[in-house]
Write a structure and sequence with these properties.
Layout: E1 10-18, E2 21-25, H1 28-60, E3 70-71, H2 78-83, E4 89-92, E5 98-102, E6 111-117, E7 122-123, E8 150-152, E9 159-160, H3 169-174, E10 176-183, E11 186-188, E12 191-195
Parallel strand pairs: 1-5, 4-12
Antiparallel strand pairs: 1-2, 3-7, 5-9, 6-8, 6-10, 10-11, 10-12
């Protein structure tokens, strides 16, 4: 858990290529805080994940979803998930948390970060398509995050996500997001949870 909820937190993520694989790493203190927050929210997330899988089966049988339910659209590759075990990044609107991506690795000449709803936990919301379109509308929870993705690279200044949008209540109902970092053909995609308040 975070020590002080009145101070904005910047989650710094270093992008590196190690042994031909893309890695996104945080320092130990950040990981410890985020794992504590994972524990705080794990029961709620597990309940919603179970609901999402049941709704996926219900939808697969041709039944329309009614109400604001979570649905599992597609699996994240279990091998990729196991290889890239990570803490979920929890962001809060107050006082205005952000993610910052950077690299000191000369192999990472350019990276692109995209954001979208987590395909394993998409909430069916009124007047909102279930289909995912990275960086646009409900698939972009950040203020000022470019629709073409956030671009950075070696010898460039760190890039920040922007704070969570407060102009769309659906962002907080949806809550579960994934960001993807791409460097050439390599990619990495951890989870992000948005929380209203502190």
């Amino acid at each position: 858990m975070r020590d002080n909820v009145t101070i904005a937190r910047i989650i710094r993520i270093e992008i590196r290529i190690v042994g031909g694989q893309l890695k996104c790493q945080m320092n130990d203190a950040a990981i410890k805080q985020l794992l504590g927050e994972d524990e705080r929210y794990q029961q709620e997330r597990a309940r919603r994940a179970k609901e999402a899988r049941a709704n996926a089966d219900y939808r697969k049988n041709g039944n329309p979803l009614r109400g604001e339910k979570f649905v599992h659209l597609w699996d994240i590759d279990p091998i990729l998930e196991k290889d890239n075990a990570h803490a979920t990044i929890h962001l809060f609107t107050d006082p205005g948390d952000e993610i910052e991506w950077f690299t000191t690795d000369s192999e990472v000449k350019e990276f692109t970060v995209s954001i979208q709803r987590n395909p394993e936990l998409v909430q069916a919301l009124p007047n909102t398509l279930l289909e995912i379109t990275p960086n646009v509308g409900i698939d972009n929870p950040f203020v000022g995050f470019p629709e073409t993705g956030l671009k950075g690279g070696f010898n460039q200044a760190p890039k920040r996500s922007g704070v969570l949008r407060k102009d769309d209540g659906y962002v907080f109902q949806q809550r579960y997001y994934k960001y993807t970092v791409k460097v050439g053909d390599l990619s990495f995609d951890p989870d992000v949870e948005g929380h209203f308040g502190n």
